[in-house]
Amino acid sequence: MAYVAVKGGEAAISNAHRWLAEDRRGDPAVPELGADQVREQLSLAVDRVMSEGSCYDRDLAALAVKQARGDLPEAIFLMRAYRTTLPRFGYSQPVETGAMAVRRRISAAFKDIPGGQVLGPTFDYTHRLLDFTLAADGHVPEAAVEAVEAQAYPMATIASVFDQENLLETDLPSGEPVEPFDLTREPMAFPAGRDQRLQALARGDEGFLLSLAYSSQRGWGNTHPLCAEIRLGEVAVEFTPDELGFPIEVGELTLTECHMISTGAAGMETPPQFARGYGLTFGHCERKAMSMAIVDRALRDAEEIENAAPVQDQEFVLYHSDNVEASGFVQHLKLPHYVDFQADLQLIRRLRREWFDREAALKEAAE
Amino acid sequence: MSSPQSKASAANASGSNAPERYYNYAYLDEQTKRMIRRAILKALAIPGYQVPFGSREMPVPYGWGTGGIQLTAAIIGPDDVYKCIDQGADDTTNAVSIRRFFAKVADVAVTEDTAEATIIQTRHRIPEKPLKEGQVLVFQVPQPEPLRGLEPRETETRAMHAYEEYGLQYVSLYESVATYGRIASTVGYPTMIDERYLMSPSPIPKFDNPKLDDNEAILLFGAGREKRIYAVPPHTSVRSLDFEDYPFETQTWEENCALCGAEDSYLDEVVLDDAGERMFVCSDSHYCAERRAAGHVGPMAGHQLAVPEKEPAA
Prior knowledge:
The complex is a heterodimer of chains A (367) and B (314). Chain A has helices at 2-6, 10-25, 35-41, 43-53, 58-67, 72-83, 158-162, 194-203, 206-217, 286-300, 314-320, 323-331, 338-366; strands spanning 101-106, 226-239, 248-263, 274-282. With 367 residues, chain A is α+β, with helices and mostly antiparallel strands.
């Protein structure tokens, strides 16, 4: 009976969760997937969960992917709900992506740039043909051939290439370092500073940002972006403990960084320059980093535009980019709403009664 | 770095958060609780004003009570008696889930008895039994901004509140009268707090709006996803907006509760078959049960719905 099924159900909840665990495991005749296998072999899923989960821990992210049965927004939610209970010790030094140990670095702006084009591990230029040899297990791929010449270090950044002519706006630190906005500790506030905006975008849903970026390319707030640089690699994280007063290295992160550039709106006071949009993610999340950079670029013009496209609207973009918030609120519609529905039912019945009364009166008058 | 997680899952497996605590008392860390308490104090000092706060990610999804849970977590103590309802009932699945959460992380006594509870967390209803001084009613709020349906921008609505610029709201009510012949708003009916701030009462039916006015209890509203807290202190004026010629009115039923015969409570409609057979029962499950225990009988008393499912001990 419907009423009983919706109300009550301590036992029903427990049973449902047991069933969920059973479904997660699948056929017990098939060996169980280890979190370490997820970490090593579904590494891009792990990267996305770390990125949007705002927590850099490959093991935890792998566990989250396993526990969520591969549902990545669910895994991201698990990661966030764990992260929120962790104490915060402070802020690290800004990571130096210029000093990154680069595994991949490409630029679409120049045919060749100092340091060269380094393809690295990429799906680009693969033919998307199902590889049936993967279905048969035991195949260890041949190791890639190592470069004969050592790669330049540090790898020149796109900014350094432009430096000579001052063609690209600088990314020098703006004056005294101020405590960065922390979206996990403070509510969204408008107008949003760039720190708040980039944080929101870094945590934002890849699919949402991808579509926004795409919409801007198709003319809904065109930003004419050009991919100046993408780099993937490892950077050191430094932290200055209060008791020491100088930075110490506390770990290493794999990051994907993207600079999108476009001809900026030239100010009257400043000479024409390229302006940039910035994308940064944990792990290897290239689609996300590029989308983020395009959206960041689009939002930079936001204040000056009157009829802004969705991608240029701060409130629209930042309020709706978080998939944990969005998923929770959309799915809360599964919760019972019968008190509200009863109120609606009453109203619609009353309106119908009045409509039929009116019709009847009209008919009578006509006869 | 990954070791704390194994402890956390161990806490989930065991029944209680004590004695070896894997999470802080009532889940949130003390700094977060202090931040929320400050927001609550500010909210009480400016009745109806939405205080932005650093809402945390909770282990339940946004939209499922994260704001209410954070409020409760910030004010609950071991001596509290906690009641949690959804749609007026203690036995709805989400209420059961949240009640179990606090029984576990706050080692708190739980109850279904409205009079006995010190903290009542609710979604979409206010209990029928009048609240008393010393009680706190915590509302789960999906959308704290009463003007959001009329103006999507937060920057705009904040300015409208600052200037007490509520003309748009009245125009919307007028349009409703023009279209439907009445103010058609049924749940989340807009209220004016202490004649200053327009406030969303959360999606309670307008039937419950009069209970907000001059209430003896503290009324706290938490919106986790939207990161806002607001409050109505005891004995504060809460006026439901209306017009002189279209006065505010609440829902009424031609039927009484089929189980307890109550004629003064909000009723849920229960569809009994696919031939239009239906019954109406109290949405407030405890109110109904208490009346039945006191000997009140409705036309369908003894129906199987009157026998509540017993919760196994957690």
